[in-house]
Amino acid sequence: MAISDHDIINIALEWKNKGRKVAIATVIQTWGSAPRGVGSKLLIDDLGNFEGSVSGGCVEGAVIGEASDLFKTGKAKILEYGVSNEMAWEVGLACGGTIMIYLAELN
Amino acid sequence: MQRKILEEIILKQGERKSLAHITDTDSGDEFIFTRSSKTSYPELDKEIIDCLRFDRSKRVQIDNKNFFIDVYNPPLKLLIIGAVHIAQHLINFANNLNFECILIDPREGFANKERFADVKIYNNWPDEVLPKLEIDERTAIVTLTHDPKIDDVALDYVLDKSCFYIGSLGSKKTHNARIERLSKKHSKKKLAAIRGPIGLDIGARSPAEIALSIVSQIISELRL
Known about the structure:
The structure holds two protein chains of two kinds.
Chain A: H1 5-17, E1 22-31, E2 41-45, E3 50-52, H2 60-73, E4 77-82, H3 88-91, E5 98-105
Antiparallel strand pairs in A: 1-2, 1-5, 2-3, 4-5
Chain B: H1 3-14, E1 19-24, E2 30-33, H2 42-54, E3 58-62, E4 65-72, E5 77-81, H3 85-96, E6 100-104, E7 120-122, H4 126-129, E8 139-143, H5 148-158, E9 165-168, H6 172-182, H7 188-191, E10 194-195, H8 207-223
């Protein structure tokens, strides 16, 4: 069965209890057309597993990359993706919207 | 996010309590807000209470601080009266949409674990069970038996509650007769809230298609 946002936090705790490092990426604001609403979550662990989503699959790869930096620094950060982003070719949103994501580690 | 905050969210969700998780996205400070909580910013309190009410997470700027209000409301509830064929499909759709489904039908031949594996079943009359359940503005109810003995008692009870959706299966003729019977106790305005014939008009034929039209109508009532 597909994972709901309600299940995501349970999975986060489950992963943490297994001794993994866990990052939670949350959509905190959207502009224009965005595939996932504010509050949507993507969960990433230090083994490369992920669950949930923050877009229709457009920026998940980039966020997973950011998470591996986060595991090194431990410092939460805000990420922004949109068509105006200079990396649009790689991680821009095809729908033309912009999303802001808060990425933090579960401590 | 701190582990103890996450554990508290999971615990409160299990208890079907509404809460918001607030993060200061500049400092990383965070806390849990429930309906009785207060922060040192009245403006923030008001924003959070609105977010809880409208089931909407939001980023706000108050006093030069950036807060993210993340809402965790209990799952929506779907009460299904009548363990008929359509109910089997309806429960599949609703489970996928993360509704907490409850099936009520006094007829054990209809409502049993053989026919319905993934739902909580009550083999009682609706007026015996409904008063024991929490029915609020996050609850939808669908009556599917089109037997007045079962459907009417359920409708009679929930019309005085604050469900966001009430739908009843049956033709226009059946529905008119139903409204006629219920109008002895309920106002026209209240009765107008009952969606009947049930479902969005998508030309549904099979039980699965009818279930799809019902679940679509429930979502449209919730979101539009």
